[in-house]
Design brief:
By secondary structure, this protein is mainly β. Helices cover about 0% and strands about 55% of the residues.
Amino acid sequence: QVQLVESGGGWVQAGGSLRLTCLASGRTVDINNMGWYRRAPGKQRELVAIMTRGGSSNYADSAKGRFTISRDNAKNTVYLQMDSLKPEDTAVYYCYARSYDSWWGQGIQVTVSS
């Protein structure tokens, strides 16, 4: 089993920045992919960014050029630096990890006001 705990969410004005952090614990040695999804009000959960253990990353088009995912395997932590935030980035952001199974964090609210 893997447990994921997110931190760093909150409220920010449009154009501002936030950094999300997700700490994994438990059977972390098997984790390959770690990343972030989000669910905006009235919408389905969608991929934001994801990174393999080796450092390959993939971003949603909406995140490219504004968000940066990074990972510290030694600390079992994945980060999401979000810059130039827009009101449409308002959502609950979920940490995700995958190995032989997949796990989700509880989610953390990000609110961007115009």
